[in-house]
Amino acid sequence: PHAEILEVAKEILAEQGITLDIVEFNDYIQPNTAVENEELDANYFQHITYMNQFNESDGTDLVSAAEIHYEPLGLYAGKTASLDELADGAQIAVPNDATNEGRALLLLQDEGLITLKEGAGITATKADIAENPKNLEIVELEASQLPVRLADVDMAVINGNYAIDAGLKVSDALAVEASDGEAAQAYVNVLAVKEGHENDPAIQALVAALKSDEVKTFMEETYEGAVVPMF
Predict the structure, then answer these.
(1) Beta strands in the chain (DSSP E)
(2) Are 222 and 4 in contact (CB under 8 A)?
(3) pTM over 0.85
């Protein structure tokens, strides 16, 4: 959703005589190296945890100029229509990547389906499940495959962007990550800049535009809960 959101901000900035050039990438590395090398002023595509990990692994000096939005995971019904009907030994599919599996398991814990080991947090895997009273089978799948396989399992925890693509609405989910929970803080999407440019006038103008009522309304009306403004 990032480029679409920036198009709204672009119109706001144009009224102030500021031209916003939006450059789209198809990977998660180039946008960061371009900002680090000062080929671009900022990027808006990643959550804070990914940015911090990228700084560590690639030696970049990126910082968050602002926290903008959050894309919650949702638990969707497959063969079983409700949490109350979940049978002993039911299958629940979760994303298999390190970033999202922990989030999915935390959501299942919040719904009282499992209990994770103390301190497992957002890095949890199914090996960290301490209690599983319904003997649920946790099926790990690539995130993009979850909507495709939803009909084959009892339930699945699906990322917001893949849910949107599959025509699933967050409002139809049986459970959704809380916007004030641990995952929301760890995975809030940020406007990233090279350290030292956070207070540049143009960056501050972009922050103000992204945090405007117009953008907030656009997020809420366009994405129907799949993109949650954090301002």
Answers:
(1) 43-47, 62-70, 74-77, 91-95, 115-116, 129-131, 137-141, 155-158, 175-176, 189-194, 228-229
(2) yes
(3) no
